[in-house]
Amino acid sequence: MNAILSHNRFGLTEPVYRSDTEAYGTKPSVRLRGFTRRFGDNAIIDGLDLDLAPGELVSLLGRSGSGKTTLLRTLAGLDGTSGQDVSIPAARAVVFQDARLLPWKRVWENVALGLKGKDIRKRAEQALREVGLGHRLDAWPLTLSGGEAQRTALARALVRDPQLLLMDEPFAALDALTRLRVHELVLKLWRIHKPTVMLVTHDVDEAIALSDRILVLDKGRIVAEERIDTPRGERLALTVALREKLLGCLGTGHISEDDDLTVVFDDKPNIPFSPSDPF
């Protein structure tokens, strides 16, 4: 297994040669070994090793083009994995950035979409009550707020009792206050249902607030890992220092007042400015 870079609590870096699940003797919920995905000669995912422990909440950070979407599609079963060493639970669900609700079906029908067996409406109703939408069962999707729509999408995922819950920037379109409330709801439901969660996000603070572990993907490889042992309610002091580390891994360094930068506008000349300018 390839070594990855891990940042410890003292700001030092150290190689990790085995996954958390291997270290603690727990059979992983998700296991990839040497996984590669190519498009022509371009390796989008390059020899990736990945373990996700049962019930673990992991965030995946990465710049555009780093391979995040390709990895998520693989874990969701949307791309083939023939001939590769990949183990993924059959019971999985995805929550996308867009709630993707069918406007011609009522809220409970969207949650129940694809369910089989008895008491389908009852199961959908229970899932909606868990996300605080028991009073919106028969509403039409177009009458929902953005937060309500995402909570409906979350209910639709959890009603299937997934072992693996994949979340593709599900909070990006929400306003700041709604996002914080949905964060709290997700953590509450995660503790109740105990799925393994992979959250893809560009928001470093969000990853710090929610995760057991944060992975940084670059050029199809995991280049950094941060395990967070601090209880979620006590992470405020940790956030600033850890944010700087993770932004550094993402190629976004600190900008000093002495740095000269250039902003490029379409069809306009380059305009040099200093970080101290009132922009």
TrEMBL record:
InterPro entries: AAA+_ATPase, ABC_transporter-like_ATP-bd, ABC_transporter_ATP-bind, P-loop_NTPase. SMART domains: AAA (SM00382). Pfam families: ABC_tran. One of its GO terms (molecular function) is ATP binding. Transmembrane segments: none annotated. The keyword Translocase applies. Keywords: ATP-binding, Cell membrane, Membrane, Nucleotide-binding, Translocase, Transport. Residues 30-244 form the ABC transporter domain. Belongs to the ABC transporter superfamily. This is ABC transporter domain-containing protein.
